[in-house]
Amino acid sequence: MVPPPAASRPGGRSSRVLAAIHTSVGELVGEGVDKITFPVVAERAGVTPTTLYRRWPDVNALLEEVAVAALTREGESAPDTGSLDEDLTQWALAIVHDIGRPERARFLRAMVSSRVEIVASCAVTDRRGEQATEVVRRAVERGEAAPTVPQILDHVIAPLYHHVVFALPVDEAYARQLVRDVLAMVR
Amino acid sequence: MVPPPAASRPGGRSSRVLAAIHTSVGELVGEGVDKITFPVVAERAGVTPTTLYRRWPDVNALLEEVAVAALTREGESAPDTGSLDEDLTQWALAIVHDIGRPERARFLRAMVSSRVEIVASCAVTDRRGEQATEVVRRAVERGEAAPTVPQILDHVIAPLYHHVVFALPVDEAYARQLVRDVLAMVR
């Protein structure tokens, strides 16, 4: 591969370049571009393909990083209301608000459609697992009966993502019902 | 559109033609063909595009029909073992066996990646809902406490499909845990 001329190279892995790359991927996904490749992203972002090849092993890794960044705000913590029921409800409602947006649903679908091999873990789910762990830890410290973290992922998070990915309707009433159901497991 | 010459037209909507179309879609999805269009399917199946335009409103409708046919065997009934726990477990294990195959996972991902608009219902989920309804009806007739059909769809089916679509591992132990969880909601 011929290296690009020095003049056209952006400032390494600066946050400005990263933001341009993320924005470009988001635009391409939003426009329904079928084949998102490093050269396509590079042209849109005004960087050289080499910038992308240096940072990500393949375009799926880039897509997944962008999806995680788009779907889970940096430093986002789970709610801390003093009650497990209310923590889970507020958390589920925030997720519905986030992933219910059309552009975020497109991100998720673009992400899964690029998957071929079984993955040991999924960055999106891992982040949700960290948040669920916080919520459960605080509930147990207060002496509340709490479902396990896998139960929360399986019975609140998975149905919400399933509905969004399959383009089935998701609303606040649905999120509240899922929380009631998972709490019924430990009552 | 110019109609194709009569000589090249296949025998209407015969099951042979339908099988060729379904097989072709399956092959194209399995090969990871990015853009499945009516002309592409038609060429592979040895039929004219008109045959496809006549039968399906668009290529997504064809993809969904093939996915449903591939994922739920014709006339497949839910197990009837005399116990709700065993019915749900056997049913969940059969689904794991079906959708855990790589080619079926590819079908599901191809199906969701083509979705743009919110759909009122999903043919795959609808079929599972009919099966869950049978299982719940029989349990109630026997006097067993049973979860609702939406609870079974949300807490057994959705997590299984979520895992397959996101390429997370799915196995028998996972299916059994989901059934235990949904039954814990009514105990």
Please describe what this structure looks like.
Two copies of one chain form a homodimer. The first copy, chain A, has 187 residues and is mainly α. Chain A folds into two domains: 12-69, Arc Repressor Mutant, subunit A, CATH 1.10.10; 75-184, Tetracycline Repressor, domain 2 (Orthogonal Bundle). Chain A has helices at residues 15-30, 38-45, 49-55, 59-71, 84-99, 102-113, 123-141, 149-165, 172-184. The radius of gyration of chain A is 19 Å and the shape is elongated. Residues 1-11 of chain A have low confidence and may be disordered. The interface between A and B is large, with 38 and 38 residues.
Quick rundown:
Chain A has 187 residues and is an all-alpha fold. In chain A, 65% of the residues lie in helices and 0% in strands.
Secondary-structure element order of chain A, N to C: HHHHHHHHH
Chain pair forming the biggest interface: A-B, 38 and 38 residues
Distance between the termini of chain A: 62 Å
Low-confidence stretches of chain A: 1-11
CATH class of the largest domain in chain A: Mainly Alpha
Instruction: Name the overall outline of chain A.
Output: elongated
Number of domains of chain A: 2
Query: Helical residue percent of chain A?
Result: 55-70%
What is the rounded Rg of chain A?
A: 19 Å
How many beta-strand runs of chain A?
0
Supply the CATH superfamily name of the largest domain in chain A. Tetracycline Repressor, domain 2
By secondary-structure content and strand pairing, the structural class of chain A works out as mainly alpha
Strand content of chain A: under 5%
DNA-binding region (chains A, B): 37-56
Pfam family, one (chains A, B): TetR_C_11
Domain HTH tetR-type (chains A, B): 14-74
Keywords (chains A, B): DNA-binding, Transcription, Transcription regulation
